[in-house]
Specification:
7% of the residues lie in helices and 48% in strands. By secondary structure, the protein is mainly beta. A five-stranded mixed β-sheet has the order 8-10-15-12-13, with no helix packed on it. Strands 3-2-5-6 form a four-stranded antiparallel β-sheet, with no helix packed on it. A hairpin with a 6-residue loop joins strand 5 and strand 6. The longest helix has 16 residues.
């Protein structure tokens, strides 16, 4: 009985609310403004760098977009707003990263510092080398901040596992790391024993890597063998 009594009341309410006029849709909320982020990538001498990879990240980080600088070192992204991060990288240079709060169109200038001179890592042969006690550190920030260092660059022709064996006699002790051109660690030496160790890490075809041999804390002679396992 209650249900039957409610039906006339609902119909009356519906009739009162509908006077025959068309219902106006709610106004759409305006889209938040977006802006243009553009810039120039140069070396430390101010010469434009073409072919540099520029990546745009949202917090997370979540890759939004990427582009390559043109012959004038220029790049640009449209439709950007709020907090983002720009990362700029190029083979042979240190990566640069910058966090931004984009509230207007803006021009950004990046200067990439070159990697220090290094030897080329050759596969399949023992390499005789030395860490010189007065050499600058390869990693001036982390645990090897004061360790003299010797650098070897490697760009694989195929992806695989890079395996490095290193041997020396006496003191000081050595260790080694394998890092990307962005400074990310791929592998560290395993400390298999006094006077020798192995270092392994997965590498990708066409990328540039650096093997850093650190001394604690003087001059040390060593020999090194590198192999790439597909």
């Amino acid at each position: 009985m209650l249900r039957r009594a409610l039906i006339p009341a609902c119909l009356a309410l519906l009739a009162a609310c509908s006077d025959g006029s068309p219902v106006e849709p709610a106004p759409a909320r305006p889209s938040p403004p977006t802006f243009l982020v553009f810039g120039i990538v140069e070396n430390v001498g101010g010469v434009p760098l073409s072919g540099a990879l520029v990546e745009l990240f949202a917090p997370g980080p979540l890759l939004i977009d990427s582009t390559i600088t043109d012959a004038d070192g220029a790049f640009g992204f449209g439709g950007v707003s709020g907090y983002v991060q720009l990362k700029v990288s190029k083979s042979g240079y240190f990566l640069e990263s910058r966090s931004l709060n984009v509230t207007e169109d803006h021009l950004y200038r990046f200067q990439l510092a070159p990697w220090p001179e290094a030897d080329v890592l050759i596969l399949g042969d023992w390499i005789q080398a030395s860490v010189i006690g007065g050499a600058p550190p390869c990693d001036p920030i982390y645990w090897d901040a004061y360790a003299p260092c010797r650098r070897f660059l490697f760009s694989p022709m195929a992806s695989g596992k890079l395996v490095i064996s290193l041997e020396w006699t006496g003191y000081p002790e050595l260790d080694a790391t394998l890092v990307t051109s962005a400074g990310d660690y791929v592998g560290t030496s395993d400390g298999t024993g006094v006077g020798r160790f192995h270092l392994e890490g997965q590498v990708l075809e066409g990328q540039v890597y650096e093997v850093r041999v650190n001394s604690y804390y003087g001059t040390q002679d060593f020999r090194l063998m590198a192999e790439l396992i597909p």
